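Lab channel / #folding
Pinned by the channel admin:
"Please post every new chain as: sequence first, then the structure tokens as a reply. Keep commentary short and put observations after the output so the thread stays searchable."

First post following the new format, from NK:
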Amino acid sequence: MLRPVNPTTGEPLEPIPCTPLEEIPDRISAARRAQPAWDDLGYERRRALILAARETLRERVGAISGWVHAEMGKLPAAARGEVEAYLRGIEGDLDTMAKALVPEELPFEGGVTRVHHVPHGVAAIVTPWNFPVGMPLTLLVPALAAGNTVVFKPSEISTRTGLAVADAFRAHLPEGVLQVVAGADAEGAALVSAEVDLIAFIGSREGGKKILEAASRRAARVLLEMGGKDAMVVASDANLDAAAAFATRGSFSNAGQVCCSVERIYVEAHAEGAFLEKLLSETRKVVVGEAPALTEAGKTPPLCIGPLASEQQLHHVERNVQEAVRMGARLLAGGRRRGDRGNHFEPTVLAGVRGDMAIMREETFGPVACVQSVASIEEGIRLANDTRYGLTATLWTGDEARGRQIALRLEAGCIGVNRSFGGAHDMPWAGTKESGYGHTRGVSGMRHFLQPRSVTTR
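Reply from TO:
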């Protein structure tokens, strides 16, 4: 039985029964029986059913965003914003899948090889709690559009949100196409160890490695996004106002519970003082909880953050901050739990951090900005690369032409120069090192949900 707790109030939510372990193989078998007919429907019919599910999700946005708020603490406006933003992206993902499904023709002397892209079969999808609607949609839409059937396990922290998403799809999909497993580690382990053809996972590095190990026993295909320890390198000639504003949102949005949060900031020594002053000024504007009503027309609303999703996550952040301070880091803002109920943590700024501190090596996943002074951009890039992770990174410099030249030296899958790392809808969302195994988005990402099958004729 899952016993979730509201992270905003600390009060228990209604318990949720776990899927009995002995039923998981039956759900996989049901998905396998449904898969040939689902594939035979063809892409256009699958697309129409997925778009119908999108409209049902849109009709239920109030209820679903309410579960996001109740289960993982995202503030109501941000919860609704998550649902609406990812719904807007579904059609673009479907258009990209259409391109991925087009066969390739490779003529040669005496014949032609046609490379088709076909579904794997049954996909197990396991998603985290930090974007409990966005992350399921990121994997469910391409998996289903490709012609796979799915067994879906949402996080134990955001199970009811995941069930609500699945219910909207199952209102339109043929029976058996989308199965759901509720539970925690035991149920997740049983699912990924079972007879599935593809495992698609978004979550922690430790969780991803366990899945990779389980998949290796059967050589099952895997697609893993395993978090980050993302770096920001700031040159002394950079626009420090823009850099500090990005660092604030990058470090504190969603209470720092984002796989691509800014977790390490390397600033050239000549600019450190000015950068910290601007960062602290921006940090003081961050609101813990709901924003007050704006009194000035046109005024930009402040960044507002909710609680950490669990008490366990709160204690992890507290430990890392306290250890860093004991080892010599300077606490310039925050550093404490806020209030006597719920899991709120103050936006925190640490300076004087070092690479031997856990807060600079382990994924923090909390509202903490860590600033380290470096002698040069070259040292900043070297330290940014000194990690097992490599999801995103940004480089801030007054010489943008030089920035474009050296950005590729950052060992990350998605890099921004003087802006966020995000870009075109179809850019691959990829991680290097232990941040990723395969990738999503773009034609190449969509083809992780497919396998090539070549047919050669005269």
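NK: Residues 119 and 450 are 5 Å apart (CA to CA).
TO: also worth noting, The first strand starts at residue 104 and ends at 108.
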